[in-house]
């Protein structure tokens, strides 16, 4: 896959706007804050050194953990989820903070930053998907007790996470033509079609949709994580733990409460809720485990590369709005679209043949240095150097050996910043330096053509479905590896340490 491409991921980041945010950032009521305070005995023991954890060289203090624990308690109470006792809540909150810190450090290492324009676009998309204005969105957020600045900080974190996912994981997922052929054959040539990108859709002569939307599935989970490299005895121990949690749930315990107290999933403090997605947005393992379950029913214990899962079906059927419908924070690339009715007949689309030179941002190569480097290369191109020669020598994209050639690009196939700059060029022209989440680009348009894309879109849709099924497990695997490579000293829960010195 070409790294400049946006990998359309249906597993969108979900951010409720009425009352809480995705990381539990809400203004705690005074009574909830008092209830969440540790006892005097706990305080005297815990604040001997004031350190809750060390992540590489970053310290997380007990004061920070207790502040987040108060906010998490308030969120759980708003959602009417049983609140774990303080010590358990602390451990759950700290695990989440450690994961967020590992992700933050990796994003910083890769030079990933969220620009003001990206943050503003994220807010606009959240508002659009809730069918309200940005002003109304802000009113609803502040009405719930969340300062707008806090909400924006959380939204930036979510966008940064998505950029990190695209940069580190999405480009590693390769769907072969043989896999597409096999998938299409298994579907009898018919499949729920992903809606074309907006630009392509405007050009395509497609029949109107015959249904209100794709079938969707909402899930929650309890995860018992299995650290990488665990011996068989430890795996069996963790399986027994998962089976004990399942027995509690089937015995009448509140699923969300058990998740909040015991799940190793980042969504534990949201009651384990994973969101509502089109069916094609879930991993095959989850679909198989829940295919015969009705809303409210719970699966058995299922095993993946990350550990043991217990799944609960929250909703199943056609999408519906209404009270409590979550807003979605957008990926910085094209907004993911759920499957729609299959387009019929010719789909005439204008394609662009382009090439580029990519300089990636990092701690060593700042945005300023990358832009300067490309300006120097652009000057050399104007002085007569060949584009393909400079691309082979300087570009950091996988297309470099081909002189930066990206082939024929269909609207919606690249991230918006790249596509907009490319569309503004005439054949033969070279762009100014263009920034995307992948780094800085010089783009040259070689030629354009109009083509019937009916067959290509069907294959593209199949590719998206296969990609979506692999993206989530791949990201979890990558995140586990990232944590395993980090130095983590969790002083509230030493047994959870998986660090490597």
UniProtKB/TrEMBL annotation:
Taxonomy, superkingdom: Bacteria
Ranges for domain PpiC: 214-315, 349-447
Cell compartments where the protein resides: Periplasm
Catalysed reactions, as listed in the record: [protein]-peptidylproline (omega=180) = [protein]-peptidylproline (omega=0)
GO BP: any one term: protein stabilization
Record's keyword annotation contains Signal: yes
Pfam families membership: Rotamase (PF00639), Rotamase_3 (PF13616), SurA_N (PF09312)
Record region (Disordered): 189-209, 317-344
Main location: periplasm
GO molecular function, one term: peptide binding
Signal peptide segment: 1-28
Enzyme Commission code: 5.2.1.8
One GO cellular component term: outer membrane-bounded periplasmic space
Keywords carried by this UniProt record: Chaperone, Isomerase, Periplasm, Repeat, Rotamase, Signal
PANTHER family on file: CHAPERONE SURA (PTHR47637)
UniProt-listed HAMAP family: Chaperone_SurA
Entry's free-text remark on domains: The PPIase activity resides only in the second parvulin domain. The N-terminal region and the C-terminal tail are necessary and sufficient for the chaperone activity of SurA. The PPIase activity is dispensable for SurA to function as a chaperone. The N-terminal region and the C-terminal tail are also required for porin recognition.
Name this polypeptide is given: Chaperone SurA
Lineage: Bacteria, Pseudomonadati, Pseudomonadota, Betaproteobacteria, Burkholderiales
Annotated gene: surA
């Amino acid at each position: 896959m070409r790294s400049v491409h946006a990998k359309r991921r249906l597993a969108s980041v979900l951010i409720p706007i009425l009352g809480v945010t995705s990381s539990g950032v809400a203004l705690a009521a005074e009574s909830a804050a008092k209830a969440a305070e540790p006892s005097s005995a706990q305080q005297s023991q815990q604040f001997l050194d004031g350190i809750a954890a060390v992540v590489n060289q970053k310290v997380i203090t007990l004061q920070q953990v207790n502040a987040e624990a108060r906010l998490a308690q308030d969120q759980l109470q708003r959602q009417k989820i049983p609140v774990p006792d303080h010590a358990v809540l602390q451990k759950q909150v700290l695990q989440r903070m450690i994961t967020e810190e590992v992700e933050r450090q990796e994003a910083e290492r890769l030079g990933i930053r969220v620009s003001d324009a990206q943050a503003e676009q994220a807010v606009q998309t959240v508002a659009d998907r809730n069918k309200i204005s940005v002003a109304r969105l802000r009113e609803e957020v502040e009405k719930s007790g969340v300062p707008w600045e806090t909400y924006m900080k959380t939204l930036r974190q979510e966008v940064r996470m998505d950029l990190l996912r695209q940069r580190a994981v999405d480009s590693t997922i390769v769907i072969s033509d043989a896999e597409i052929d096999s998938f299409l054959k298994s579907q009898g040539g018919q499949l729920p079609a992903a809606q074309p990108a907006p630009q392509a859709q405007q050009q395509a002569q497609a029949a109107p949709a015959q249904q209100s939307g794709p079938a969707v599935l909402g899930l929650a989970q309890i995860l018992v994580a299995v650290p990488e490299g665990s011996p068989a005895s430890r795996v069996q121990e963790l399986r027994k733990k998962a089976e004990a949690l399942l027995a509690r749930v089937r015995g009448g315990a509140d699923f969300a409460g058990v998740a909040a107290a015991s799940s190793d999933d980042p969504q534990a403090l949201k009651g384990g809720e994973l969101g509502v997605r089109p069916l094609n947005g879930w991993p095959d393992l989850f679909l198989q485990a829940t295919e015969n379950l009705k809303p409210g029913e719970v699966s058995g214990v299922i095993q993946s590369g990350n550990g043991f899962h217990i799944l609960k079906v929250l909703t199943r059927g056609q999408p519906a709005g209404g009270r409590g419908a979550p807003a979605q924070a957008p990926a910085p690339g094209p907004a993911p679209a759920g499957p729609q009715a299959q387009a019929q007949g010719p789909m005439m689309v204008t394609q662009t043949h382009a090439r580029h030179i990519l300089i990636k941002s990092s701690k060593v190569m700042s945005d300023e240095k990358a832009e300067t480097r490309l300006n120097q290369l652009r000057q050399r191109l104007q002085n007569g150097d060949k584009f393909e020669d400079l691309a082979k020598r300087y570009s950091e994209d996988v297309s470099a050996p081909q002189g930066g050639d990206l082939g024929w690009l269909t609207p919606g196939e690249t991230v918006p910043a790249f596509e907009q700059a490319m569309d503004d060029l005439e054949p033969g022209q070279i762009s100014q330096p263009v920034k995307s989440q992948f780094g800085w680009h010089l783009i040259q348009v070689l030629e354009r053509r109009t083509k019937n894309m009916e067959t290509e879109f069907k294959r593209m849709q199949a590719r998206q479905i296969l990609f979506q099924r692999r993206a989530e497990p791949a990201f979890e695997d990558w995140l586990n590896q990232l944590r395993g490579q980090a130095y983590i000293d969790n002083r509230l829960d030493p047994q959870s340490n998986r660090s490597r010195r």
